[in-house]
Every structure is written in C-alpha cells, then in structure tokens.
C-alpha cells in the first residue's frame, strides 16, 4: 500500500490539535489519556520512548478503516499525567496496559507496538497473561542489555540533567529525537515530539523516565519469548542506530514462528521514516490471520 503521496496523513501535515485523546482513565490515582477511532475488531497501538501516541497520527486513520483502533499515552508520557516521584518504568506500564484492556473490555486484540511499547506488550502477554490475536513489534526494546551512553549518564546524574537550563535541555531533546530518523523532521513535526518534554514539569518527566530504564524488566520476560501464544510479526529499520537490526534478527530467532521484515531507508522512528511500510505490513499480516481463521472454521 503506497497511498496518495499528497495525503496529509502520510506526508505528516497533521497539526497537533488534530490528534485527540479525549478520554481519561484513572490508574492508581493517575490520569491516562486515550483515544478511539474506527469500528470493527479491536486493535491497540502502543508507543515507545521518548515519544507519545502522536507517532500513530499518520497510521491510525488507515488502520481504522479496518479495525476499531485504541491508542493512549503511557503513564508519564504525552498528555498523560506527569508528576514528581512517579513510577513510569517498564515495571508499571504493563500493569497499566492490562488494566486498560480490562477497562475497555477487550479480549484478544490485535496489537501493534513500538520501542518501549513493544516491551510493554510483551510484558503484559508474558507476565499478566494478556492474550492477543496478533502482535506486531516495530523496533522493540526486547533484549538485554539496552541503553545508550546517554541513558547511562542520565541514570547516574538525573538531578543534574533535570536542573539544566531550559535552552540546553531543549537542544538535547531535539538532537536525541532527531537521531531516531533517517529523514530530518521539519519544525512542526519535531514540536509534536518535543512539546511534552518542555517546561519544568516536562523536563523533570523526561529525565525521570530515562533514569528508570532498567535491564531487569527485559531479563524477566526473555525466557517467555519461546512460548508466545499468538502470531508475531517483527518490523525493523535497516538504519536503526538506537537498536541495530542485528537485535531484530536475534529476537526473530527467539520467537518461534515469527516473521521479520527489514525496512529500507528507515531508522528507529519508522512511523516517520516509513509509515506506508507499517500500514502495508500490518494490514497484510492481519489479512493472513483472517484467512487462516476462516479456513480453520470451515474444517
């Protein structure tokens, strides 16, 4: 699926005000914002770090022509609540996701998850027994160890980074996010990703989530990869500098029966570099599952 080259969704010309998360869910006294679009079988989108559900703005409208699409901002990200002393680690995000599935009364959804969202979906499946009809993983954080030298620096000096002058912090955020794509983001798109992390509250929240990254949350689920209870499709950017494609190849071997597709000219943030590849691959994957289920019912 290539889509219309002038389509505002694929070109990214979607203003921040057009991305809505109008609903609120309370998780342990903390606000989590979410949205829903489309009709049909449920499909849930999970974003990663340091992003928000806005990564799906170019993709969800297409998926919503085939599915009822749910999307939300992880705790401490995007429009969801941020506060001092908050636990926003991978150890809490799977608990939140499991609670949301129960709240939405969704059983066996199709799930599409990126980066930390991938880790969250895997943890919910393995630790919370959340069942999926299918799972698509896009450049997920799924193998230990993980974390760049920058992450290590923040872990050891969270307060120093939180107290940086705003202009230095803003430069760091822009450089960090800019490194996640092959094609340079224009100012409007960059602002979609940086805005939640600006201001005193946003700056503290950014370094909080980085400081809480830990290999332990991945190590405790790695043995479960050999026992996945749903079909798994893996997408990986050929030019991902955050998590190299060799990690995708390792994960593919660990998850029996999974498929792996490497995407040319895409880095870590595939939603910006190659949204059409995600749309085409996900819809093809879901169609194959539809056909397999229909054939099974006819037996």
Automatic annotation (TrEMBL):
Domain of life per record: Bacteria
Native species: Mucilaginibacter polytrichastri
Pfam family, one: Abhydrolase_6
Protein name: AB hydrolase-1 domain-containing protein
Residue span, AB hydrolase-1 domain: 43-280
């Amino acid at each position: 699926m290539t889509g219309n080259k002038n389509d505002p969704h694929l070109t990214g010309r979607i203003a921040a005000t057009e991305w809505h998360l109008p609903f609120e869910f309370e998780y342990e006294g903390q606000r989590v914002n979410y949205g829903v679009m489309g009709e049909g079988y449920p499909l849930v989108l999970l974003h990663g770090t340091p992003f928000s559900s806005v990564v799906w703005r170019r993709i969800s409208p297409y998926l919503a022509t085939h599915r009822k699409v749910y999307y939300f901002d992880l705790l401490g990200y995007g429009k969801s609540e941020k506060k001092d002393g908050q636990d926003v680690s991978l150890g809490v995000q799977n608990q939140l996701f499991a609670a949301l599935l129960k709240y939405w009364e969704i059983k066996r959804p199709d799930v599409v998850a990126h980066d930390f969202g991938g880790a969250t979906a895997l943890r919910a499946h393995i630790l919370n027994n959340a069942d999926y009809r299918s799972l698509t993983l896009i450049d997920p954080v799924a193998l230990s160890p993980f974390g760049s030298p920058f992450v290590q620096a923040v872990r050891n000096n969270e307060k120093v980074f939180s107290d940086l002058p705003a202009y230095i912090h803003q430069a760091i955020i822009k450089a960090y996010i800019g490194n996640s794509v092959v094609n340079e983001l224009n100012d409007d798109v960059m602002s979609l990703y940086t805005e939640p992390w600006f201001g005193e509250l946003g700056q503290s929240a950014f370094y909080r989530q980085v400081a809480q990254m830990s290999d332990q949350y991945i190590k405790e689920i790695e043995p479960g990869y050999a026992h996945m209870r749903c079909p798994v499709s893996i997408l990986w950017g050929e030019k991902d500098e955050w998590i190299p494609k060799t990690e995708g190849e390792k994960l593919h071997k660990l998850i029996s029966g999974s498929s792996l597709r490497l995407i040319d000219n895409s880095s870590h943030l595939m939603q910006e570099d190659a949204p059409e590849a995600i749309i085409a691959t996900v819809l093809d994957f879901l169609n194959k599952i539809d056909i397999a289920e229909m054939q099974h019912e006819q037996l």
